[in-house]
Write a structure and sequence with these properties.
about 325 residues; mainly beta; Tachylectin-2, Chain A; Jelly Rolls; 2 domains; six-stranded antiparallel β-sheet; about 0% helix
Length: about 325
């Protein structure tokens, strides 16, 4: 298909690409990036003939994904940061329309417009793709970028994320439960009170780890986790919560106070330089690329200006997938 042919408007941007195939009411469609929502419909089962159908609002950015999730339709866009809208897909014989039920929301807070010093690309999650598996689960993968240059590559795939829609109407992302097969050595602590201090967790360390922690804020002004930490906590990848915002190694993740539980839960996967964080059972997510000091492997918790309680903290060494 080319601009100006098969009914496709001649003014379509020359960079339209990143096709995403989706189905609705037994019909098959495709949309693209940089095309102002252009949609074509398949004219045969072998997908060799297509016809321009119309334009659909809210398709913007690169790698658009369009899919149905729990009787709602979702348009996921690779913007800065990753965003999505939910609503209804309205199909007529010669037209297609997407009626959004609210403003765009952030899918993952990790991708910024500015690249870190000495990096090829901004770091974080981008360029997503989603599909339904044989069990009917909607699974999302994305491209993680932001690595140091001169490596011969600049990216890897994210962990698989299972998507659902929560009671608030927002998309919830949870790591695929199959990842539990990578769990190795396990350390657990319960009901650990921390009072205006940094506390290293005995036996909890590593460069490839999964951490699941639950915090009761208590009276502390700020509290959180330190990963890949020096023994004194001065150097670390820090996840710090204060005043409704979780700061993940420099990236702010605002948490909606409406409907959020009192306990803050952090589910973190850290694979050397790649970190994916799922907050409050997947209500928010952030992806980062970090380069801590090679000798720093400790894990600790902290509270500032008051007392907080680590209700539970589980750490597993992650085994190789090979």
């Amino acid at each position: 298909m080319e601009a100006g042919e098969h009914g496709i408007p001649a003014d379509v941007h020359g960079g339209w690409s990143d096709p995403y195939l989706f189905k609705g009411n037994g019909r098959t469609f495709v949309t693209f990036k940089s095309c102002n929502g252009l949609v074509c419909e398949a004219q045969n089962e072998t997908l060799t003939e297509w016809k321009y159908l119309g334009r659909m609002e809210n398709v913007t950015g690169e790698c658009p994904n369009v899919f149905e999730l729990q009787n709602r339709w979702v348009i996921l866009r690779s913007t800065h940061p990753l965003s999505y809208v939910t609503g209804d897909l309205v199909l007529k014989s010669g037209d297609i329309r997407f009626d959004a039920d609210g403003p765009a929301r952030v899918m993952d807070y990790g991708y910024g417009k500015k690249k870190p010093e000495g990096r090829v690309m901004p770091r974080g999650l981008y360029g997503t793709n989603s599909y339904k598996d044989p069990r009917g689960r909607t699974i999302l993968f994305g491209w993680i970028s932001g690595f140091k240059p001169d490596r011969g590559w600049n990216g890897c795939m994210s962990l698989p994320r299972i998507l659902s829609i929560g009671r608030s109407g927002r998309i919830v992302q949870t790591p695929a439960p199959e990842l539990k097969t990578l769990r190795g050595k396990h350390v657990r602590v319960n009901n650990l009170e921390i009072n205006n201090e940094f506390r290293r967790i005995d036996g909890a360390e590593g460069k490839q780890i999964e951490v699941l922690a639950a915090f009761d804020p208590g009276t502390a002004d700020a509290f959180g986790l330190k990963l890949r930490s020096s023994t004194d906590g001065e150097r670390a990848i820090t996840l710090r919560y204060a005043d409704g915002t979780l700061n993940v190694a420099g990236t702010d993740v605002p948490l909606d106070p409406v409907g959020e539980p009192k306990t803050l839960t952090l589910h973190v996967f850290l694979d050397r330089s790649v970190m994916e964080v799922f907050v409050n059972e997947g209500r928010a997510a952030v992806t980062r690329v970090e380069y801590p000091a090679e000798e720093d492997c400790a894990v600790g918790v902290f509270a500032a200006n008051g007392q907080s309680t680590v209700e539970s903290l589980d750490l597993w060494q992650m085994k190789s997938i090979w």
